[in-house]
Amino acid sequence: GDPRRLLLVSNSTLHGGGYLGHCQQHIKSFLGEKVKRVLFVPYALHDRDAYARTAREKFESLGYGLDSIHESCDPVEAVRKSEAIFIGGGNTFRLLKALYDNSLIQEIRKRVLEDGIPYMGSSAGTNVATISINTTNDMPIVYPPSLQALGLVPFNINPHYLDPDVKSTHMGETREERIHQYHEEPNTPPVLGLREGAMLLVEGDKATLQGVTGARLFLRGKKPTEHEPGTDFSFLLIDSNLQNL
């Protein structure tokens, strides 16, 4: 069987709520009672101490201890000993570069895909869980050695997906157009556009859309499709070459 367990959240904060407030029940149900401590990865933000304090306060309020990887003298060993991993949002390029710099890509992959420890990501942390960060919304403020990410799922995600505003006079490209440009390149995988308030739960070979807002699925060469919470996206886990169907 496939041991992987992922909770991939579009955003950390939903309008009108506090940090991870909109998904805290999902987090509790996802981590359950076996997990006692969570390893937090704050690399996406510059002020890692402040970020760790925010995350620690939230997770402690849910009944979990939290260790921040930036406080460890040996990040690789911290991953090897972790019961669960949470990678927070911020700048995806900064995050991925730090994962490479600390030799954590293969270590996290092994812990999640082979050992089956729970992995939670929000925003940039969701981006790096996928094949690559090609479909992030962030500016490349630093230069990671590769855009290839953790590859915990065989497709890409666009967190904070925004629908075109029909009343807007802004003439720049819509998110949909940008994803279409990505799919103009050969052999590009599916892209799941997760709106604010949406999240994807992966348990083994089953993937389910959760949250309150829904998602938009983009397959190369196909018209995008709209999906409501509760949608079974397990087929995305089976074949990363869906664009060839």
TrEMBL record:
UniProt record, GO biological process: proteolysis
Pfam families: Peptidase_S51
Keywords for this protein: Cytoplasm, Dipeptidase, Hydrolase, Protease, Serine protease
CDD domains: GAT1_Peptidase_E
Cellular-component GO terms for this entry: cytoplasm
Enzyme class (EC, first level): hydrolase
Main location: cytoplasm
Location in or out of the cell: Cytoplasm
E.C. number(s) listed in UniProt: 3.4.13.21
Catalytic function, reaction form: Dipeptidase E catalyzes the hydrolysis of dipeptides Asp-|-Xaa. It does not act on peptides with N-terminal Glu, Asn or Gln, nor does it cleave isoaspartyl peptides
UniProt cross-references to SUPFAM superfamilies, sorted A to Z: Class I glutamine amidotransferase-like
GO molecular function: dipeptidase activity; serine-type peptidase activity
Family the entry assigns: Belongs to the peptidase S51 family.
Primary role: Hydrolyzes dipeptides containing N-terminal aspartate residues.
NCBIfam families: PRK05282.1 (NF003642)
Name the record gives this protein: dipeptidase E
Taxonomic lineage of the native organism: Eukaryota, Metazoa, Chordata, Craniata, Vertebrata
Gene behind the chain: Aada
